[in-house]
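step 3/5: co-fold with alpha-L-arabinofuranose
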Amino acid sequence: MFEAQLIVDRDFALAPLDRRLFGVFVEHLGRCVYNGIHEPGHPTADEHGFRGDVAELTKELGATIVRYPGGNFMSGYNWEDGVGPKEQRPRRLDLAWFSTETNQVGTHEFMHWCRKIGIEPMFGVNLGTRGPDEARHYLEYCNHPGGTALSDLRRSHGAEEPLGIKFWCLGNEMDGPWQICQKTPDEYGRIAKETAKLMRWVDPSIELAACGSSAYDMPSYGVWEDRVLEHCFEFVDYLSLHSYFVKPPVGQGSDTSTEAFFAQIETNARYIEDTVAIADAVATRKRSNKRLKLSFDEWNVWYRARHGEHLKQAGWPEAPRLLEEVYTAEDALLIGGMLTMMMNHADRLKVACMAQLCNVIAPIMTEPGGPAWRQTIFHPFAQAARWAHGEVLRSVVKSPGYANARHGELPYLCASVVDDPATGRTAVFLLNRHLTEEMDLSITLRGLGAERRLVQAEQLHSADLNASNTADAPDRVAPQPLEGIAILDERLSVKLRPASWNVIVTQAIRAA
Ligand code: AHR
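step 4/5: write tokens
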């Protein structure tokens, strides 16, 4: 057993937490859409073919925004293929995933699904094979009230009212050699600027995200951000980040240990901080007070189902099984730690999308005609999305730590605290990275109300870090009650099991 402390103070708030930090991603890829969220023959399917069981799990996950329709798919997509009578929609070769796209799900079907879930859509425009002209037309089709050819076309397709899609991504991973029509930073920066300009003229109420590099460890990282923003800084609201956590982690040699795996939390913190620094340097150069926001619109663990037939199958199949990563308890702990880190960057990080939602590197898995179940990573996401409301407080962590090749000494404790003055509730999120020892933790919640009552306390822990949830055993890894929390005035004390993710929610009975 070892001792650790977490201290927060009501007066030391970092920023309001943007609830769009709990976003997800639905791409036309593998079985994410077809035979995932959409399976017309399934016993739970609605009149549009969307599975009711997946819809219920998505609500339980608590996702607030969903990115669509890609990903790499976006860079070859013709939005016109996915609107109008279904029987007239073309079948196309999808060059991103070497599959056949049937276009049976398109803009209107996806918007129906968003409304059914109660989730905000985040759409993207194709800046690979297409460009500004297509983007302005797509936006006009979606958001213009009526009286023009495109907005009236939408109305003739059954959507009398504008779709009101507010958040738009300007392409996807345009620096990647795998991207359909990869671009140089100057080519992309110019196109992003001109596209943003036209889109804002069509609908000034939208928010726009430009593509950052497709990963922190891309050779293009840094120079890409700087050059792209040189062109489009004044025209966009967000810069995107993408990160997939791998084993062994980048920059840590061949170290496949869990401790090194968990150090990717710090790697991604650096990624965010470095990106903020670059954006602010561009602002300085431009004599601008603007502070660009970040959209971490792809993030997850992805290293097992990442090669060979997991990426590409012969014969241009429809909805093949691609990127179907099976997650472990170890992955769920890293996801929990990542969530604490992202909350702790809430001053600049406003949007994030776990990639993806269903079957494809996903918290929800399905079998055609069969069940849907929660992967291990579902749980920390759902807990954070449920309880993190209000303002993120600056956490002071005092904890022993371990040595890491890339980052030096790392504390065993990762923590974030979110306080909601409206309800008096304070949610504390905790990862004990020690693999064998219990943590004796003291939590001080200064100025948040003298008397507190416990609202909820749960832990996620598995004796076997390789344990996963399957169709046969869907709840092998699931949260359990966290017992033994002592509350004395402003202090909570609790023992956290080794290798555990924990959520403690308390509520002030009397104001401070
Ligand atoms: O999420 C899977 C793929 O990963 C996305 O299509 C792409 O943007 C990224 O490289």
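step 5/5: annotate
The CA atoms of residues 145 and 426 lie 42 Å apart.
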